[in-house]
Amino acid sequence: MAIAKDTGPNTEETELPIRTKQPRQQLTKGMEHMRAYVIVPETPLSTGEDAYGVPATYEPVRKPTTTMASDENPHKRSDPFQFGTRYLGEGDDIFAHNAWDHVEVDAQYTDFIEQQTSFQRENRVSDFDKQRFNDKPEKWWDKFYSNNQANFFKDRKWLAQEFPVLGEVTKEDYGPVTVLEVGAGA
């Protein structure tokens, strides 16, 4: 542990410990005694040979992160893919898919949507801000990406999966195209 000296105007010279940054713990100190029960070691605990039909080591059964949705629900992603044809079913991994086109919302959420829509109508962007942001949008996107590069954006290749037509229309010889970006949450 490093030591710093405090030499303020009204203090005697004292040594203060400096805490070095530690890697983030997966388990709290109170739960550390359970580590052997909740993690699978990278290397087998035993390197002995199988005996009497009992394996010396075992590989735990690992469930895949998502089930094969195509077996359970024919409307899930399949190629060629048409956007908006996947349905969220009971028991589906809600984080494995991005399209929520056919999810029915309850009355409470409908009220929330209406409140947000009316708030947006009542609080429009000023003409000054419209011009400022629309004149050089690349400037503002570059600023946004530079501020959020390390902690926010990762290339998840989502656009190519959800909108395969973008692969075609972005080729040099395709010609002019208009793309409407609705935005997140629309």
UniProtKB/TrEMBL annotation:
Residues 1-25 are annotated as: Disordered. One of its GO terms (molecular function) is tRNA (cytidine-3-)-methyltransferase activity. Signal peptide: none annotated. PANTHER family: METHYLTRANSFERASE-RELATED, TRNA N(3)-METHYLCYTIDINE METHYLTRANSFERASE METTL2. Belongs to the methyltransferase superfamily. METL family. One of its GO terms (biological process) is methylation. SUPFAM superfamilies: S-adenosyl-L-methionine-dependent methyltransferases. Keywords: Methyltransferase, Transferase. This is Uncharacterized protein.
